[in-house]
Write a structure and sequence with these properties.
The complex is a heterodimer of chains A (about 600) and B (about 250).
Chain A: H1 3-16, H2 41-44, E1 46-48, E2 59-60, E3 66-68, E4 80-82, E5 87-89, E6 98-99, E7 106-109, E8 114-117, H3 118-126, H4 132-138, E9 140-144, E10 158-159, E11 168-171, E12 182-191, E13 196-205, E14 211-219, E15 225-230, E16 235-236, E17 252-257, E18 263-268, E19 273-279, E20 286-291, E21 300-301, E22 307-312, E23 329-334, E24 339-342, E25 352-359, E26 365-372, E27 379-386, H5 388-393, H6 406-418, H7 429-434, H8 437-457, H9 468-473, H10 498-502, H11 505-508, H12 522-534, H13 546-556, H14 579-590, E28 606-609
Parallel strand pairs in A: 9-11
Antiparallel strand pairs in A: 1-27, 2-3, 3-4, 4-5, 6-7, 7-8, 8-11, 10-15, 12-13, 13-14, 14-15, 14-16, 17-18, 18-19, 19-20, 21-22, 22-23, 23-24, 25-26, 26-27
Helix pairs in contact in A: 1-6, 1-8, 6-8, 13-14
Chain B: H1 5-9, H2 33-42, E1 52-53, E2 61-66, E3 73-78, E4 83-89, E5 94-100, E6 107-113, E7 127-128, H3 130-140, E8 143-148, H4 153-169, E9 173-177, H5 183-192, E10 202-203, H6 206-210, E11 219-224, E12 227-234, H7 239-252
Parallel strand pairs in B: 7-10, 8-9
Antiparallel strand pairs in B: 1-2, 2-3, 3-4, 4-5, 5-6, 8-11, 11-12
Classes of the chains: A alpha+beta (about 600), B alpha+beta (about 250).
Chain lengths: ~600, ~250
């Protein structure tokens, strides 16, 4: 394996593409200015949610602090998550709460539609000790009957006699029953002089044929609901679109209304494509406005409706055939520029997915990262918050537009060089930005000379090299919470145990005659295997089998401080190669599960010219 | 080589840009179409195969079509001017990738293997694979596959509903679980609902995965005469709606 050759080209490219940012000198002391640098913000925005199992249906309250969700089981448990305190919140014993899009601190639950005061519910559960199960049964102090579909001012307005009595209102109108509900804002009105304080909402439910109904909710102080008034009759969803292909009226799956209430997105089961449908409230007619051409998961509109976030299959994201996965990845689509951007951080592999992205008011996007480790049986959940604008610039396959800080770029290329055996085709910038700070700095200390050496070999020795100190300063400054990050590379997907996927020891282990175990280079592997038989007496591997050589190497690295043995684990996770890891590696070797890395492998992965 | 195959094969219109309002491939102006055709014929891709567009970033757009056998899929990647890559995914996790040189249409083939269906916790079956799916299709001929997740409340609620609907239409229903579900939560629900152990086999079927059943839970697929119908119904319905949907999908299934 020619490590330097692989290093030189990108390094030169990096140095040449600094876009006016001159190569750093050993004496420079400025902090990295990488436009793509998302750390430390990124480190703050990965929020493990392991205390809450699951949570696929997500929505954000307007203050960005609470994530609505529903847990699994036959009934929901946690229904919200406080991102500030990192604690789950129990609300009513209902599922899929949907917050008001206009900032009011209320939410609705489906089937039947009920309006809840978030703070009241939270207080009752957390401060008053009310059982959420009881809240669901006893909290309705206003109920609308099926015939209550008048214009504003009609006598069936449901007024709260005593605001302290209960936290919710319920609509028993069968026309708006059903799950997969969402809510749009038709206007928020606050006029103290006129003593007006109300919001108009459009509620869409997706069950059955789907339906839409408008409401006016009148508020008191602190978003206390004083009255709920229907503004329209419940209308079936898009009867004009239900021709022969909509015989049952059930061909729309999981619709979501836009924040302004004039559009909704839905999966059209007939065409297996997600479409955006424009809705005319006056006529009830619908027009297909946009067709993605592919299926997505539930979508989420940005506050102004110009962008749409969703998750979808990942096929086609890379040219690497081994990069395919059946697990969804998060995307954002800009309706103005017509550009689709992947929001994957590079930490999603065959065992991890990113789902249900939703916009915050500030344009950032939150999604859930979920993973399951097939080897340990452990699962992991985290919420990830990203700025799609910045994220676009470090997209794994589209990073060319990024004005990469040379320190950061050189550091990431150094990672790539040292770990190249299992990181082929990987953009290391994202990893560099998110790796544990201590590991990163130790890595620079240990391997800076590789950077110097590679430049010398490349004939760029006279160029102004980045200093070791400067490179170390490019490391992240905050520890990334444990998120189950693992290397998602073509090499790492070759049936490798988790230990090997996660530990750089396989490619730069000290003590090997080769300096590392060249798993991805059959020729080097053959040489290594042959050493045992050909080495002269006294050679550390004389007479040893390949397995014994590997055993020596991994045993030597057991509990080592070499950061490479722990990459990319964080210290809290045991940043060292432990006994279990050694056993796992050796078992893997003994079982002969080398795949293309086998020492005698010929062409499990091969290249050939077609005839 | 079958002359004209490609034109028949891709008698579709629209351009191949990042994300547009159509779900089709326009091959007439593509370079290398002859070479592409050779591979598609060699892999015995049906002439009337449906090519579904995939979420794609940048100028390279992907489409996917079902291959000849269960669990066999072909992904085609193309720029507006040319097919760049074909990826052939086989049921046994083998992958062939063919890359077309945009200058002279010469090809390079790379073959490899996706991660094998490793069974964690040796001795315990954990995955629902294409082999499992084939056995069900062969044994039952007609029936339902219900893909659920312990983390999607409605998909759990729907287990009872789909069972009731299946009974109403006289078909068996098999449950397949979210591949990355939390094991503890899955076991809790298994016990709570008194489900068979097979209900928490994790979805690791190329065939089902190719139908994007992991996009939302629950997802429902119907099979007829031992063949999966291509329609996927997403989201919970009550038993009566499920019965109507199953009847409709079954009736339209070719």
């Amino acid at each position: 394996m020619n490590r330097s050759a692989l290093f030189i080209t990108p390094l030169i490219s990096v140095l040449l593409s600094s876009h006016g940012a001159s190569a750093q000198t050993p004496s420079e002391t400025t902090a990295p200015t990488n436009e793509c640098q998302i750390n430390p913000q990124f480190a703050d925005q990965v929020i493990p949610s392991d205390g809450v199992s699951g949570n696929y249906w997500t929505n954000l309250m307007d203050d960005h602090t609470v994530l609505f969700t529903a847990d699994g089981g036959t009934s929901g448990r946690f229904q919200a998550y406080d991102l500030k305190t990192k604690t789950p919140i129990r609300l009513t014993q209902e599922i899929d709460p949907f917050p008001a899009p206009d900032g009011r601190r209320i939410y609705i639950h489906p089937s039947p539609i009920r309006f809840f005061e978030f703070d009241t519910i939270r207080d009752k559960v957390e401060k008053q000790g009310v059982n959420p199960d009881d809240l669901a049964q006893l909290s309705y102090d206003g109920a609308l009957s099926p015939s209550d579909t008048p214009a504003p001012g009609h006598s069936t307005i449901q007024k709260r006699k005593n605001p302290k009595e209960g936290p919710s209102f319920q609509d028993n109108d069968n026309g708006i029953q059903g799950y997969y509900e969402s809510m749009a804002s038709l206007g928020r009105h606050e006029d103290k002089d006129k003593k007006e304080n109300y919001s108009d909402y459009r509620v869409l439910t997706g069950e059955g044929e789907g339906s839409i109904k408008d409401y006016r909710v009148t508020f008191g102080a602190n978003d206390k609901i004083l009255a709920v008034t229907p503004l329209s009759k419940a209308k079936p969803l898009c009867p004009n679109l239900r021709g022969n292909s909509y015989e049952t009226g059930l061909d729309f799956d999981t619709p979501i209304i836009s924040p302004k209430g004039n559009e909704f997105a839905v999966v059209d089961r007939q065409t297996r494509s997600t479409v955006i449908v424009k809705f005319d409230a006056a006529t009830g007619k619908c027009t297909k406005e946009f067709d993605f051409g592919f299926e997505t998961g539930k979508v989420h509109f940005s506050p102004d409706g110009s962008k749409i976030a969703f998750h979808a299959d990942t096929v086609g994201e890379q040219n690497d055939p081994l990069a395919q996965s059946n697990l969804p990845r998060p995307y954002v689509y800009d309706r103005n520029t017509k550009k689709l951007t992947s929001l994957s951080l590079g930490d999603l592999d065959d065992n991890a997915q990113g789902t249900f992205p939703v916009f915050r008011k500030d344009g950032k996007i939150l999604y859930q990262r979920s993973s399951y480790d097939r080897n340990t049986g452990k699962s992991s959940r985290a919420w990830v918050i990203v700025d799609p604008n910045k994220f676009n610039s470090i997209h794994l396959t589209g990073g060319k537009a990024c004005n990469t800080d040379p320190k950061m770029a050189a550091l990431s290329e150094l990672w790539k060089t040292v770990c190249e055996g299992k990181t082929k085709n990987r953009n290391f910038l994202d990893w560099t930005l998110t790796v544990d700070p201590k590991v990163c700095k130790s890595f620079v200390a240990d391997h800076y000379q590789d950077y110097v050496k590679a430049n010398a070999e490349a004939g760029t020795a006279n160029a102004k090299l980045i200093s070791k100190e400067s490179m170390a300063r490019a490391c992240p400054t905050k520890t990334l919470p444990k998120t189950g990050l693992s290397l998602a590379t073509s090499g790492a997907k070759q049936n490798l145990p988790l230990t090997i996927q996660n530990r750089c020891v396989i490619c730069h282990t000290k003590g090997s005659p080769h300096g590392y175990i060249p798993w991805d280079n059959p020729e080097e592997m053959r040489k290594m295997k042959a050493i045992g038989a050909s080495a002269q007496p006294g050679h550390p591997y004389a007479g040893k089998t390949f397995l014994e050589q590997v055993s020596d190497i991994v045993e030597k690295n057991k509990n080592t401080n070499d950061p490479g043995a722990g990459i990319p684990r964080v210290p809290a996770d045991g940043n060292r190669l432990n006994g279990h890891d050694v056993t796992e590696i050796l078992d893997w070797v003994k079982n002969g599960s080398f795949g293309k890395y086998a020492p005698n492998a010929t062409t499990n992965t091969h290249v050939e010219e077609a005839q | 080589m079958k002359t004209g195959y490609l034109l028949l094969f891709f008698a579709l219109t629209t351009s191949a840009h990042a994300v547009e309002n159509a779900n089709a491939i326009h091959f007439d102006d593509f370079a290398c179409k002859k070479e592409v055709q050779e591979f598609l014929v060699h892999w015995e891709v049906a002439k009337n195969a449906t090519w579904s567009k995939q979420a794609s970033t940048g100028k390279v757009v992907s489409w996917k079509a079902h291959g000849k056998n269960l669990g066999e899929w072909i992904t085609l990647q193309a720029t507006p001017k040319s097919v760049t890559t074909l990826v052939h995914l086989l049921p046994d996790q083998k992958v062939e990738q063919v890359t077309f040189n945009q200058t002279d249409c010469s090809v390079k083939k790379v073959s490899g293997r996706l991660p094998a269906q490793v069974e964690p916790n040796v001795g315990k079956k954990a995955d629902f694979t294409d082999e499992d799916l084939q056995k069900i299709l062969t044994a039952n001929k007609n029936g339902l596959i219900y893909i659920w997740s312990p983390h999607m409340t409605l998909s759990v609620k729907g287990i009872a509903d789909i069972k009731k609907a299946a009974a109403a239409v006289g078909m068996p229903v098999d449950l397949v679980m979210d591949p990355i579900a939390d094991e503890t939560r899955a076991q809790e629900i298994l016990k709570e609902l008194d489900l068979p152990a097979t209900a928490i086999l994790r979805m690791h079927s190329n065939e089902l995965g190719g139908h994007s059943v992991t996009l939302h839970y629950p997802a429902l697929m119907v099979y007829k005469a031992g063949v999966l119908c291509s329609t996927v119904q997403r989201g919970w319905r009550d038993s009566d709606d499920y019965r109507k949907i199953v009847t409709e999908i079954f009736g339209e299934c070719k």
